[in-house]
Amino acid sequence: MEIIEENGEGSENISEVQVNSQPSGLSKTAQKKRLKQLTYEARKAEKKAKMKVEKKREGERKRREWEEKLASLSEEERSKLIEERKGQRKERMEKRSEEREHKIQRLTKAKENGQNIIIDLEFSHLMSRAEIQSLVQQIMYCYAVNRKCSSPAHLWLTGCKGDMEIQLQRLPGFDKWIIEKENRSYIEALEDHKENLVYLTADSDTVLDDLDPNKIYIVGGLVDRNRWKGITMKKAQEQGIQTGRLPIGNYLKMSSSQVLTVNQVLEILLKFLETRDWKASFFQVIPQRKRCEADSGEPQGEEDEEECQEKDNESGRKKQCIEAASNSWKS
Ligand SMILES: C[S@@+](CC[C@H](N)C(=O)[O-])C[C@H]1O[C@@H](n2cnc3c(N)ncnc32)[C@H](O)[C@@H]1O
């Protein structure tokens, strides 16, 4: 297998032989993983470069078209057209800035009275670089979806520190996000509200039937392909906080596990807050291929990581012991 890696200073060929021949001391599985990662990064860079070229070409085509049009007009018609275009641009900018202002207002209001939802970022030590990257993308998606909502939630990122924070800060505009960024853990930051904390986990025996505005729901910020099975349940039990799982089984049959990605869970919660209808929320967010029943709902959202998760579950990935990891939140 041979792939091309774009690195900005020319291209570099990466082949299986090359990766294997590196005196890295990596196991065969780790080498395969590394190759997969390199392939992924190379394809991503290639796609990005292609899109950049296409965008430039399209811009040039439009400019040429515009210049040709202007050249075919009289002086008077030309001035009129230019003024018209300026007016349209101004209108567009005003509309955009109005929309932006509305979004800011909605998010600011949500800070006071929106449903509190936490993304718990205390698992970065259990994830690979690629998994952290995937989580960062999911968080970005969560923020974007919440920002668009007519009644957004009050989002929190707790345990936001170290590598996780560094990666998030690389996102354009992250510093301006209207979100609660907290480097302490939720158990510390919200110690006065402990009785209202509810950890959402697919392993809970408690099935949610509604969302309580007084409760603070926690989603595990974890991309683990369910390698760390049961880890959030264990954490919540050790901390003595409530747990709940989404009532997926009451409304649809899944073709595999009911463990969803962070962004899917958040999107379901947001849809439910809007509609108070679990079934509609599940059908709109959970990809059709993950469901057994035929329906007409369109799959939405970020699915890449979830696909990986599913694939790995299918291949019967070995479950790791969660004991060692739990020490990090006991202290
Ligand atoms: C990719 S999952 C992480 C799975 C992880 N092994 C665990 O033990 O939670 C990301 C998070 O989404 C939430 N989640 C996923 N599926 C869920 C479900 N069916 N019900 C409730 N929460 C769910 C949980 O908070 C979970 O930690």
If you had to describe this structure to a student in words, what would you say it looks like?
Its EC number is 2.1.1.221. The protein is an alpha/beta fold and 331 residues long. It has helices at 16-21, 28-71, 75-113, 129-148, 162-169, 186-189, 231-239, 248-251, 262-275, 278-285, 304-314, 323-330, and strands at 2-6, 11-15, 116-120, 154-158, 180-182, 197-200, 216-220, 242-244. The strands form two sheets. Strands 5-4-3-7-6-8 form a six-stranded parallel sheet, with helices on both faces. The chain has a two-stranded antiparallel sheet with strand order 1-2. Helix 5 links the parallel strand 4 (154-158) and strand 5. The protein starts with a strand and ends with a helix. Residues 1-23 and 295-331 have low confidence and may be disordered. Bound molecules: S-adenosylmethionine. The site of S-adenosylmethionine has 22 residues, from strand 7, helix 7 and helix 9.
